[in-house]
């Protein structure tokens, strides 16, 4: 998987930033803190995403504290954003909606 070209990255970031993601330019990664009602909701969401991520063989960097999940998406093999990150971001948004 190759890094997004500049135009595709701009489109992807516009979509992501509209949903509360930030771009970490140093890593060419996107980050977002998801907030849920409580720990059960947060961990349930993480469980659903873990199954999707493992099927994709593409895994988030994330940390959970009670009802919060801090997420970073980046493709390690590509040293930046790829379509895999955007597919996983969409799955996260859909599952949190
Ligand atoms: C061997 C395995 O396919 C790779 O290590 C996969 C696993 N999950 C991954 N997840 C992410 N985010 N980036 C990767 O480059 C990556 N590579």
Walk me through this protein's architecture.
It is a single chain. With 97 residues, the chain is α+β, with helices and mostly antiparallel strands. It has a single domain (6-96), classed as Transcriptional coactivator/pterin dehydratase (Gyrase A, domain 2, 2-Layer Sandwich), CATH 3.30.1360. Helices cover 45% and strands 22% of the residues. The protein has three helices and four strands, in the order αββαββα. It has helices at 6-17, 39-56, 83-96; strands at residues 22-24, 29-35, 61-65, 68-73. The chain has a four-stranded antiparallel β-sheet, covered by helices on one side. Strand 1 and strand 2 form a beta hairpin. Helix 2 runs antiparallel to helix 3. It is globular, with a radius of gyration of 13 Å. Bound molecules: the ligand C[C@H](O)[C@H](O)[C@H]1CNC2=NC(N)=NC(=O)C2=N1. The site of the ligand C[C@H](O)[C@H](O)[C@H]1CNC2=NC(N)=NC(=O)C2=N1 has 6 residues, from loops. It holds the Pfam family Pterin_4a. GO terms for molecular function: 4-alpha-hydroxytetrahydrobiopterin dehydratase activity. Keywords: Lyase. Its EC number is 4.2.1.96. This is Putative pterin-4-alpha-carbinolamine dehydratase.
Average residue-wise pLDDT = 97
The molecules bound to the chains, other than polymers, are: ligand H2B
Shape: globular
Q: Secondary-structure element order, as H and E?
A: HEEHEEH
Give the strand tally.
4
| Euclidean distance between termini CA atoms | 28 Å
Biggest sheet strand line-up: 1-2-4-3
Q: What's the number of helices?
A: 3
Main sheet specs: 4 strands, antiparallel
